[in-house]
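Notes from the 1:1 (GR / supervisor)

We went over the backlog. Supervisor wanted to see one worked example end to end before approving the batch request, so GR pasted a single chain during the call. The sequence is below; no edits were made to it. Supervisor asked that the structure be written out right there so they could see what the output format looks like.
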Amino acid sequence: MRASIDELAPWMPWATPDYSALDAAAWVSGDLGDVPPMVVALDGAVIGTCSINSVDERNRSANLGYWLRSDCTGHGYAVEATILVARYGLTDGGFQRLRIGISTQNHPSRRVAERAGATFEGTLRCSQLLVDGFHDSLLYSFVAGDLDLPSLC
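Structure output shown during the call:
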């Protein structure tokens, strides 16, 4: 995370210079209440994560988030990880719906969602509080049919 803090900080409020190894360990272990994240690795090195969080148990839905180390972007790793985690979430994870919320200004993240096959649902006004204030966000989602999986809808 620290290798990419300049690129992550505008979109990920947790990406601060004081983010510690203890913070990372608590998040990876699932101690913060989220589904433990999937680590994106290349040649044995961690290059990012893809995670399911903000779980709504009643509606079996959650947020799907991702980030990748800046020097590893542009190779399709984030797209591949997003598809794999979406497939997991909609099958073994037991979710009916996974949503991706992206600032309208975060063009790389938007490209990942679109290339992974997420469906664009609309723009949510003033819905994301980031370091420089509130942003409108683009809402994308996956449901089983998007990935050719059996669907309840």
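Supervisor's comment: The beta strands are 38-42, 45-56, 61-68, 97-103, 119-130, 133-143.
Batch request approved.
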